[in-house]
Amino acid sequence: MDILAQAQQLDSEDVLKEKRKAFSIPDNTIYLDGNSLGPASHAAQMAGQSVLDAQWQTDLITSWNVHDWIRLPRIVGAQIAPIIGAQADSVIACDSTSINLYKLLHSALNLQPDRHVIMTQQGNFPSDGYIAQGLMAHRSEVSLIYVDEQDIIAQLDESIAVLMLTHVNYKTGYMLDMAKITQAAHALGILVIWDLAHSAGALELSLDEHEVDFAVGCSYKYLNGGPGAPAFIYVNPIHHNRLKQPLTGWMGHANSFAFEQDYVPSDGIDSLLCGTPNIVSMAVLKGALTIFSDVDMSDVRQKSLKLSSFMVSVIEQHPALQPLELVTDMDDARRGSQIALAHPDAYAICQAWIEQGVIADFREPNILRIGFAPLYISYFDVLKATDSLAHIMQCKMYRAQQYQTRNTVT
Amino acid sequence: MDILAQAQQLDSEDVLKEKRKAFSIPDNTIYLDGNSLGPASHAAQMAGQSVLDAQWQTDLITSWNVHDWIRLPRIVGAQIAPIIGAQADSVIACDSTSINLYKLLHSALNLQPDRHVIMTQQGNFPSDGYIAQGLMAHRSEVSLIYVDEQDIIAQLDESIAVLMLTHVNYKTGYMLDMAKITQAAHALGILVIWDLAHSAGALELSLDEHEVDFAVGCSYKYLNGGPGAPAFIYVNPIHHNRLKQPLTGWMGHANSFAFEQDYVPSDGIDSLLCGTPNIVSMAVLKGALTIFSDVDMSDVRQKSLKLSSFMVSVIEQHPALQPLELVTDMDDARRGSQIALAHPDAYAICQAWIEQGVIADFREPNILRIGFAPLYISYFDVLKATDSLAHIMQCKMYRAQQYQTRNTVT
Prior knowledge:
The structure is a homodimer. By secondary structure, chain A is an alpha/beta fold. Chain A has 2 domains: 3-31 and 296-400, Aspartate Aminotransferase, domain 1, CATH 3.90.1150; 47-292, Type I PLP-dependent aspartate aminotransferase-like (Major domain) (Aspartate Aminotransferase, domain 2), CATH 3.40.640.10. Chain A is built from 12 helices and 13 strands. The first copy, chain A, has helices at 3-12, 42-59, 63-66, 72-80, 97-110, 126-136, 152-155, 178-187, 279-289, 297-317, 346-355, 379-394; strands at 30-31, 91-93, 117-121, 143-147, 160-166, 191-195, 214-217, 232-235, 325-326, 338-342, 358-359, 361-363, 367-371. In chain A, the strands form 3 sheets. Chain A has a 7-stranded mixed beta sheet, with helices on both faces. The first copy, chain A, has a 4-stranded antiparallel beta sheet with strand order 9-10-13-12, with helices on one face. A two-stranded parallel sheet of chain A has the order 1-11. In chain A, a hairpin with a 3-residue loop joins β12 (361-363) and β13. The longest helix of chain A has 21 residues, at 297-317. The model of chain A has no long low-confidence stretch (mean pLDDT 96). Chains A and B meet through α2, α3, α5, α6 and α9 of A and α2, α3, α5, α6 and α9 of B.
């Protein structure tokens, strides 16, 4: 079977193919950057319009009750829960991933009074390390060590209080073994915080089953919640009501509207809240998440793996694409939902590709990063995108480009 | 002149009267709760629609540069700056008021290594105290003391590191003398953080001129930025590049997109950023703030004072309203942009008023809180609202009501 027929065959068998209609992706665009910013969907856009024009405009302050704004962080958390393998009341949407990580790092350290070491992987998304560094500036007993992602279990010992890991590497797509690492850490009394930024919405996750302690995640990537959408926190039920998090704002109080002088934390996951939730962004996210309500995450994972391996097989057949070095470990058990290709001109190649309607992104110093979002990417998209990339490489189109700006949000 | 003629005369002389057209307030509604949640405006709604339908949908990830999303926290900060009497690069929009207060409290304490006391006023909005309490849980040397709002200057001494005050009391509307208190604190080496939640957008503020050190504020009240809109931070230029704030996320890094392992703070106000900004909410806020671009804040302040004193004069003339006890100090130098009326049935009265189309709010235990937003409230509105309240009191309409929910966001 030729490669076009193969793509068509794969598309015809795709159980998720109807989901594409839910998204508002521009014509003539193949979007391989859903791991940076997921696209708009009709449901998200309508939810945004509804909160602005129907709720806020018409019902004003009464919307906090009439439209249940006050419960949105929990409602959205309950939508995210099944996507990550958690029970509904263990997840809450709020603040940013970095701020949520700060809450959990403090909380986890407080549960380990005799240990003061945070361990993370080299090449983790830098903001995670920055948050630990910011915490260390006022908790001088705490230290942070970085270890090779291939060598995490071997480096564990009983001095470590908290293991803070990103499940899928933002640059290479390398995926850690969540179950095995969590189990090894627990055997040594170590608590584990997983950052699911590049996992939630693209992989099959089983946080409860794997007895994960804590997780944070991002909802503007594979969950398509909108630019800078509220992040989320997962806390395993065994840790509910044990946490002392430092960002003790009124929304985390047991009785926010009693206006008491002293802070008393809410029961359960609500204690992770701080200030007034961002309702407009939260409503847009809530709309976006409805798309997942009837999706089986094992279908998503299977399609994600097949999309990326299909692209790699097409790349291997194109002589013009051989100068691109595949950085991603293609073992199904060790890759997330993206591939990374290294090339000295990766930045210019990426820009030329974008001009051809294929949107991927660049990561310093030489990585072309390609994300596969199974809800709106087809095998035919992958084939067309790869053909376009081959054409760019063959004609060295990227050499003629002038590129000014390099900053985009992961 | 009778009272109706007086209202009409005041309205005809009102230099801000045309501003009302900018807002999307429902017909037959008089909105006296802008100090809890400002109303929608056409500009805010259009900005929201534009970010969802034009920017996110069409330009996807490239919007971070094409639509300058990456600079929105500074752009919005620069819009807020003239409203609070600050230079543009001293204000940034981000996160929530509570989280921003945490950043500033830590930063201010770090500048005062030999002092460990935070002082605040009794009856301050509770979340401000909660944030200090959360910080104290992991900075055991720090303590928090509460003093009477009438007695702040007399209680200052050289043990105090940081004076954390809310400028206008959320319940009573009592306004502190920002210039005098800041000066008295500085004379004793105390740094001052002002919470402008009930000030920004309704009063004339002069942060730079009064040499205020730090401020936080809320943009969903008198700035009409939308429910849970991003908050803001002001840092006096003398403190730029001296701050070590603990929430060190990648957006506060000197070079966010270099993905370096170690945190290096940005210069200036950008170092107060943490995670990815909430773009949809930020865009709505940016739209809302355009309404202020040609407004003189001294006109706003003058009208605010006249609106509240007009209502009090009408109340005084209605025999049916005498059971409502005026709690607010009506001295122009000591009141913000609201009045508070105490009554044992305040909650039920408030609900009955809302059913008559006049939206105010209730605060525990017995306060009917009435906010005056000069950009969309007329003197005639105030007269009609007061007549409606008199009718409710006269007929004891509130006695017949069943009221279930009491929670609304300040």
